[in-house]
Amino acid sequence: MTRTALSLIVSALLGLLLMSGCSSVDSDRIPPVNVNVVFSTIGDWERYGVTGAGNYQTFIAQQHKPAGFPYKGLEGTGYGGILLIVDPMGQHCVYDLACPECVPSIERIFHDTDSETAGIFRCPKCGSTYDAFAQGTARSGPALKNKYGLQRYRISVTGGLPYAVIRN
């Protein structure tokens, strides 16, 4: 391969990378806050965690949700709370419940039972919908126009002790 051909290929690949960056989703609109939820035992996970595809649970420490979850005072449940959900591939996903379009107010998304697609969550204020099975990307409303996605957090399910940890 000639140096000119190699140069053209590298330029084309670089151009593709730059173009794809222009259409990226902004998932960092939520202010940085403490996110630390620990499932100390397998029993905690079995009671409050999620295991099946499409199952979800919300965590809002200030409102003691879910009821009975053993918050110890050091936990943080994000800006608007945490959505823990399992996608159709069996992967655990964690998002902030706050609608990124409505920041700085805290408008919590909710499961859109009117949607024909599973994993869709809607903001009650702006009407934006988000797909929890597609990395929290917006599907409609002003969040789609502005390319805002749900804030994602990390989850580690170890199977040991602690059994699972959610962090930012």
Estimated helix fraction: 10-25%
* Coarse structural class: alpha+beta
Q: Number of helical segments?
A: 3
- What is the rounded Rg? 19 Å
Low-confidence stretches: 3-23
The chain-level mean pLDDT equals 86
Walk me through the structure.
This protein is of the alpha+beta class. Helix content is 19%, strand content 26%. It has 3 helices and 11 strands. The protein has helices spanning 3-22, 42-48, 142-146, and strands at residues 35-39, 56-59, 76-77, 82-86, 92-96, 110-111, 120-122, 129-131, 137-140, 152-157, 164-167. Strands 2-4-5-10-11-1-3 form a 7-stranded antiparallel sheet. Strands 6-7-8-9 form a 4-stranded antiparallel sheet. The longest helix has 20 residues, at 3-22. The protein is globular and about 45 Å long. Residues 3-23 have low confidence and may be disordered.
Provide a short characterization of the protein structure.
The protein is of the alpha+beta class.
List keywords for this structure.
26% strand; disordered N terminus; 19% helix; seven-stranded antiparallel beta sheet; alpha+beta; 168 residues
